[in-house]
Amino acid sequence: VAYFRNLEHMNVSGTDVGEEKRVGQLRSVDLSSNSRLRYINVSRNNIESLILPESGQRLEEIRCHINRIEELNVSKYPRLKVYECWQNRLSEVDITSNLELEELACATNDLFESGLDVSHNVKLVKLWCDDDGLQQLDVSQNPLLEELYCPKNDIGSLDLSQNPKLRLLNVSET
To answer: Which of 8, 30, 63, 158 is 20 to 30 A off residue 166, Cα-Cα?
Structure first.
């Protein structure tokens, strides 16, 4: 993809059609030369290494769920609105500099030690962080939050008093 410098939309995801679920065969994706990208979908592959654009002033969506990614730095993408990185091997999801973020799906990773800081993401509408090993979650700075799906964690208490728009809530243990 390095030769396609004008690429704005890229979808090389595996398929999920009906009962047929196919995982793609990509192991590594290097998008470092693709600074015009707005949308990236590399989901449902076997990716261990995803190299994002060097300059991401346009990037608004990253969908990289169901892979084997251990590390991914999204701090250089101020316009990022959607980040789906669920079911990977991430030990940290740092979105503190993604102030435009509206949707985060980071479930089924191992965030036990790092936790999840969403205090800077005041535009967050959807947060799906189930089965991440979280011990605490502070959503008091997310007044626009409509969906909070965080079951299968070890969260002792959850203050939702600052989330008046909440319409979907799941904090069950199963």
So the answer is: 63
